[in-house]
Amino acid sequence: MRLPALLVAGLTVAPLVIAVPAPAVTAPGPAKANDFNGDGEHDFAVASRFSPRNSDDKARGRVSVIYGGRHRVQTLTPQSLRLPGFTVDMSLGEALTSADFDRDGFADLAITAFGYRKVIIVYGSRKGLSSRRALLPVDSRGGNTTLVTGDFDGDRRPDLSVTLSSRHWLFTEIGRGSNVRSTPPSLLGYHPRPVAADFTGDGITDLVHAFAWHEKGTTAKLILFKGSKNGLGRPVETDLVKVRSVAAGDVNGDGRTDLVAGTALSSEKKDGRVRVAYGTEEGLSKPVLLSGLPKQGRDFGASVSVRDVNGDRYADVAVGDPREETSKNRGGAVVVLRGSRKGITAKGAQIFTQETKGVPGGGEPHDAFGQIVRLTDLTGDGRADLVIASSGEAPDGRLLLLKNHKGKITTKGLKIFSGKRLGFVDSSWEALP
Ligand SMILES: [Ca+2]
Ligand SMILES: [Ca+2]
Ligand SMILES: [Ca+2]
Ligand SMILES: [Ca+2]
């Protein structure tokens, strides 16, 4: 094991982010999100903002894509993207999202860089992410950018919602010569965790902001902006505790997307928690705390991901528990829970740790196994595979790809990507707080 150097340095910034495919969203363009080479297999983008660690390097930050199928790795750097005005105090890869913005059949990748006041759109092509790119200005100081895509106005073109510091932008047409910016609803809190999906079931994507931070106590709001032909509507608020992670999928199979939130940090209890707010015609239901789950560590819910694993049309949920305290080594765990007519259930749950047969290595404190989890279909068979990040794994962090076999996540044919292979040399990895 290796102590994350940036934690030692006392920084609380979060260098590692992963593009989240939005599972239950109707694909806004001709290509699926996250399929940059348009071959039907999802590709997987991951960023490390502080690679290389040397602060003299004028181009910090790496974004790497693992392509589905044969798992070719492509690494983007500030130099390879030819970013004008990119300086030493900036770092590429603060936030990532994907959609086919120019609707050419190849998904495109949107990236922000800490300190860089532009969103970078890298266009896909048959060969994957290409040298063709666009820069969208978001002129504001500060960091903590977030990106999320969805068709918020129902015109079947993907829109891009951007937050930076306490401001919010919405781009409604990208990649058609002009990049149109509309006036989005204002941001109603700090450190939003946005998620976009059709929660109300009317066929138009809604935008939800959950919040990781709030001025008072542990409560925060879950704010839904309903998508409509006229764009995003007035905010509808639901109470929720502060969140660390959010994801969306129809876990109870009623045709409306539900919101799953990991509320591990700063929640009222020390233990990690996962809550579900169900989609309804009016908006999101009061969040329900999941119960009857396997024993949880403090960080249960540090990361959540939602997608159908077993093909029964109920979305399933992967939950990262990077500091679980149930095993003696506290190396971290990942739990896969099933969706059902009654919602998420512990019945048939799968648990993975580094002690699981077929998982390489052994659990050690600070490995942070499960710090980031993503259910994504990297093999193109229509069922979700599981990506697990353990940024503390010696010497340079590790991503594991666990494939889906007959509706179950299995360690058979498991693929390992070291930090080095991803271009993240000598870097500390951290999940978004
Ligand atoms: Ca692909
Ligand atoms: Ca495209
Ligand atoms: Ca539902
Ligand atoms: Ca399922």
TrEMBL record:
Coiled coil: none annotated. InterPro entries: FG-GAP, Int_alpha_beta-p, Integrin_alpha_N. The keyword Repeat applies. The keyword RNA-binding does not apply. Keywords: Glycoprotein, Repeat, Signal. Residues 1-26 form the signal peptide. This is FG-GAP repeat protein. It comes from Actinocorallia aurantiaca. The lineage of its organism: Bacteria, Bacillati, Actinomycetota, Actinomycetes, Streptosporangiales.
